[in-house]
Every structure is written in C-alpha cells, then in structure tokens.
Amino acid sequence: ATPVVFNQKVCVIVQEFIPGTAQMGYSNDVTVQASFTYGNASPVLPTASYTLHDITTMGSSTLELKKEVRNVTQGVLVFGVNNLAKSGETLEYRITYTNNAPTPITNLMVNDTTPVYTSFVSSTTGTTPATLTACTKNTPFNPSPALAVNCTLSQTGASSTGSVNWKFTGSLNPGGIGDVLFQVKVD
Predict the structure, then answer these.
(1) Ordered alpha helix ranges (H), 20-88
(2) 145 prior amide bond cis, ω within 30
(3) What's the Rg (C-alpha) of the chain?
(4) In what order do the strands lie in the sheet with 90-99?
(5) Are 92 and 80 in contact (CB under 8 A)?
(6) What does the pLDDT read at residue 37?
(7) Which residues contact 50 (CB under 8 A, 6 or more apart)?
(8) Mean pLDDT for the chain?
C-alpha cells in the first residue's frame, strides 16, 4: 500500500537583487505562483493554484544587514564576500546589522541558516550596542521550538544543520551597529 501523507509544507524563497543604483522609493513587485496537481489520490483531488505578490521598496529607513565570511582554518583575519574552502575547513560568517531608521528598532532578530554542504560548529555575538540589553539564540544544537539559550553559551554536540537565530531585547538606536557570528565546517 502507498503511504498517505497529510499536511506537507512547501517553502518558496524569493531572492531579489537590488542594484546599487536603485533610487529611494523605487519598488519591485514579484508575483510568485505555485500550481499543484495531485496524483494517486483517492478520491481524486482537484488541481490547486496559489498566487502571492511580494513588493520590496527601497528606502533609507530600514535595518541594513551585511553578511561576510572568512576561512578560520587558513588563518584568514579579514572578512570578505567570498572564500576558497576545502572539505574539513572551518568558515566563520559575520552578519553586521545597522539601524538606518530615524527611530529605534525593538525586538531585533537576526536569522540565518547553515549553508549547504556544511555543518554547524558554534555561534556568538560580536559587537553588541549597550542599548541591546540581552540576547538569546536558537541554533542547530537547540532548534526552535526548543527554549532559546543565552548568546554567550558555548554549545557542543553532534554536527548538524539548520537555522541560527539571535533575538535581542532592548532597542537598537538610530545609527546603531552590531554583529553576530557563526562557524560551520565544510563537509
């Protein structure tokens, strides 16, 4: 007999490229459409189609995120936008966050995931503005919905993959800058 599977979820990721010459106020409207045809269902299920409009608007009053990488195994000290890594080497990613808004940002969360063909090693905060008063994290070692742990906690365990999330309390004032870091080992 064929197993019956219910409530499967499909994640669709829309990646946009914003050219450096884009002017403030410009927007990009992307239509994402998914069509489903169900096979081997009894009774027969009708086809389904879903549409979503994603609108991204350029503005200066936003949270800016910048992601960079360096090869720790090779002793690279400077972060850049690319790397040359071999199997077994450790890479460190740094995500810098900047508040370009005219008002403070509260409930700041920074989310990322381990890249394909890598395994999570560790995560921490780098520079944290004093106005961000506390930080908790979920990593592949304690994936959500598990309780978040303090960002300073050193976690160890079996190699794994998945989301890395930092949640800050307090506020990030206008012009405030900080960063978070995580390391992965190349498979």
Answers:
(1) none
(2) yes
(3) 20
(4) 63-71, 90-99, 177-186, 118-125
(5) no
(6) 79
(7) 33, 34, 35
(8) 86
Q: Using CA atoms, how far apart are residues 119 and 162, in angstroms rounded to an integer? A: 9
Tally the C-alpha atoms within 13 A of residue 133's C-alpha that lie toward its C-beta. 5
Per-residue pLDDT, 143: 92
Q: Which two tokens stand for residue 134?
A: 């506390």
Please give the Cα distance from 71 to 91 (Å, whole number).
Answer: 5
Instruction: Name the least confident of 43-57, 84-98, 128-142.
Output: 43-57
In the chain, helix, strand, coil percent, each to 5? 0, 45, 55
Give pLDDT, residue 29: 81
Amino acid residing at 100: N
pLDDT band at 84 (very low <50, low <70, confident <90, very high): confident
Integer CA distances (angstroms), 119 to 21, 84, 87, 111, 154, in order: 36, 17, 11, 17, 16
| Tokens matching residue 90 | 């450790």
